[in-house]
């Protein structure tokens, strides 16, 4: 059975009130000898405070819920690592929930975390979430009065705290590098159209194309699903269009491009150049190390916890966006057509 304050008091030969004062560092008028007896009893009986009871008294459990969309994806695994490390550093507990990109499960987890007394929720929207579903999720959080921070998938028209990356900049960096390397026939494997981060990558990419006077056609874009299979399908489609370079909007789809090229006897970068996005996987150990747009994913996870704890402590729920900037990581997957 769990050791109680009454057990400690009996072992130390003092009152429950005295034990409580010692454990809460409020024993200013209690003799040092008594304090030592209490601490000795605590150690002997392996006492641990009941955090649920403590939370009821202090109205804070020091627990954060993290609702992630796909923990098997290295990108979200890295965010989770950042969140976990910052929680540990600040002495907070973490409950991890994985939606597998299902909106319904997202809503269910919000209620589960609320029932378990989580002080706040960090949320990455499911891949299937369109604007209406995002609004439903946010309305649910607001109705339950749970402090929350959204990470990664930014939605500009939604009120709330966001920690995200400037994907317009990321798309621009990818497009500019490809044109600087002499590529004019470029194809893109995008993410789902309902996701703003994918649309912003396209926006930035097209800015770079305009600067380089490269005209893109609607057929130069293949809509993927941020997974390996859609990367394979996109590679086949774009190679049939005769592109010299492919910009995959995330790392998993870039791996799909590699897989398709390998199965069809195509070499990277000799036959086609590839640039990816994320840089959280194993891009540097591929047979042609993948040039990537790197997102500071781990740092985003840690920053999200800092914002979450600030909101909980200050009870400040205003709209705010913390924006990180991506960077170009040049490796060996893009051929220089200028030489």
Automatic annotation (TrEMBL):
Q: Which InterPro entries match?
A: HTH_LacI, LacI/GalR-like_sensor, Lambda_DNA-bd_dom_sf, Peripla_BP_I
| The keyword Transcription belongs to this UniProt entry's keyword annotation | yes
The UniProt entry, under CDD domains, shows: HTH_LacI (cd01392), PBP1_LacI_sugar_binding-like (cd06267)
Query: What PROSITE patterns does the record point to?
Result: HTH_LACI_2
| Keywords on record | DNA-binding, Transcription, Transcription regulation
Keyword Repeat in record: no
Which terms does the record give in the GO molecular function aspect? DNA-binding transcription factor activity; transcription cis-regulatory region binding
Ranges of residues in domain HTH lacI-type: 3-58
Question: What SMART domains would the database entry show?
Answer: HTH_LACI (SM00354)
Q: What is this protein called?
A: LacI family transcriptional regulator
Q: Which organism is it from?
A: Dorea formicigenerans
